[in-house]
Design brief:
Layout (H helix, E strand, L loop, with lengths): L1 H14 L39 E4 L14 H6 L4 E2 L1 E3 L5 E3 L2 E6 L5 E6 L13 H12 L11 E6 L5 E5 L13 E2 L16 E6 L2 E6 L13 E6 L3 H9 L5 E4 L13 E15 L11 H9 L3 H8 L4 E3 L21 H10 L8 E8 L3 H14 L4 E8 L1 H10 L4 E7 L7 H4 L13 H12 L3 H15 L2 E13 L4 E2 L16 E2 L15
Helix pairs in contact: 1-4, 5-7, 11-12
Length: 524
Amino acid sequence: MKRLLALAVLLALLSGCAHTPPEVLEPDWEPPVLEEGQETPEKESETPDWPAVFSLAYHRGQTLDPVLCGDGVQEDVASLLYEPLFRLDGGFEPEPLLCGSWESDETFRVWTLTMREDACFSDGTAVTAADAAASIRRAMTSERYAYRLRNVASAAANRSGELVITLAAPNSGFLSLLNIPVTKSGSERQGLPVGSGPYVFAEEGSSAWLEASGAWWQGKALPAERIELVHAKDRDTAAYLFTSHQTALLSADPSGSMPASAGQAEIVNVPTTSLQFIGFNTAAEEGVFSQAAARSAFSLGIQRDMLSETFLSGRALAVQLPISPVSPLYPEELETVYSQEALTAAMRAAGQDTGEKKELRMLVNEENSFRTANAQFIAEGLSTADWEITVVELPWEEYLATLELGDFDLYYGEVKLTADWDLRELIGTGGLLNYGGYTNEVTDQLLEEFSTAADRESAAWALFAHLRNTMPIAPVCFRSTAVLTYPGVVEGLAPRAGDTFFGIENWTIHLSGEENGVDIPENP
């Protein structure tokens, strides 16, 4: 029963059911049908039944091509097979990996990259600019990467063996978008492209595993020569495999809180670029939020720290500006401290304390209970003075259609920003995600200047100081993902956004070995 309850809570994490209370003893849930060989443990034990081998879930029969594979476990496994031109550090700044050096022209439209001379694929052939160019062109047509690469006009290798990327419009932060895996050109036609990562995929019959690549150009020692892959037909089964100790690590995308006791797991939170915010209908001439003062007052009244600690259980970063607080560009000096006195004063200054109640509608997607709970909390806290805010929960398609019609006062939204922090589609005039109809010439100018600035720190300060005053949206938090392992199994785990296995060469993996009747050699 303990294991079933832990799994139910973990499934709630993965599905976005944020507020299934941990004290529920009889969850309305049945274990997924397991594949042959995936047995339910027969008995509970006070001593954790650690795995004898290090194993991961994967979806057999689905591609591991990093450009085409799905999110979650398949993306994690693929990340051990392939490497990008750049990877992102803990502040979402680009670090070169397969790229050795780079330069741009003075307009930040033409970028010239030189590949590392020692980088090679698992078949021993060199990673070339032509391979990188082909990978980018293929990524431009994929569902996963098309949006971030929408500004790329061309990518090709020149006669000097350099990768030349030409953009349709300048972008001084472009390198942050190049954490895109590089595959050997043409090998994708074989079904599984050749990569340059630390492991290679192998299978025999129904068994599959990753084995250390003897040609890994980085030449670093790995914590396991072999990683077993256990088939999971879907996300729920992957969660079950982890909670039943058949796999040793799982990355999840939490939409709400999860007790640390779930599955007896250790949890490492990883910041993401997924921003949750309150959107305003600024286009309605008679609307409350057509004026910046009312929007600023609303933002002042959001108790972000309480949201982060209570509803999010610390698995999100409270934020007042639309850029992650872990970024070196985040201007902490522009933040304000919540107080009821400041809110009251701001409401008075905005003319929202007349004593005449205004009924306001806040839209939220009903399928995500985490967002609905946050929306309710914010609405209750701000139904003060002249405002009476009702949260309207709608199915996704209806929610989206209502936003496009502009039939709302407020909405609780979420957007996955790109790591160059380009906000033009969200708050720029005519932006595809600008459902509130916000338009401001100074905002548009500052957005463009930030995109083209050589000094991005100064440009970011100017932009965010302006946004604090105009408040086109009210940022709430940046969500985190969670990487789960069992206590003592992985030492040195240090995941980054989009890179669960970052620094795997620094890991030490501890297994049960002879305790499970299996003779496991010691880690190197």
